[in-house]
Hints:
Layout: H1 3-22, H2 25-32, H3 36-43, H4 46-65, H5 82-95, H6 100-111, H7 117-139, H8 148-171, H9 179-197
Helix pairs in contact: 1-2, 1-4, 1-6, 4-5, 4-7, 5-9, 7-8
Amino acid sequence: xxxxxxxxxxxxxxxxxxxxxxxxxxxxxxxxxxxxxxxxxxxxxxxxxxxxxxxxxxxxxxxxxxxxxxxxxxxxxxxxxxxxxxxxxxxxxxxxxxxxxxxxxxxxxxxxxxxxxxxxxxxxxxxxxxxxxxxxxxxxxxxxxxxxxxxxxxxxxxxxxxxxxxxxxxxxxxxxxxxxxxxxxxxxxxxxxxxxxx
Length: 198
């Protein structure tokens, strides 16, 4: 690996061990076996490197959500069905215990947002990638073929559900919503909306 990759891997380890607030540039250098100047050269700043490391951790979670992350594969139900909806959320929920440290990083950004202004700004920009990355698991359309409206509506919907589930499962896994409950809730909302139209 070159310095760029070494820095990214070192930053990932530091984030999982110390989080955003406590990780220093020196920690990353020590963990990666590089030097301080290489952070600026390859990433521009420590915060930009930490954001890149966090995004790569989140992308890695996608593989545990669904083996076909980004292509809608790895599920047996038809895309766009409630069965697919439930199946994908069951995969997501199954991955939450192993991904606890990564989700705790998300909460850290929320809690310490006043101390992590630059990180928060960079992560807000990265949310767009998250929205477009999650949609294919549900609708089966490859990410590079999604239109803007789908990403801005369905992507936001799924991202909001994911964030809510993450908080519930971090707070109390025993009382958190499961995939069947989430799907039944959506089924009832759809039925109510249809009934209201007629």
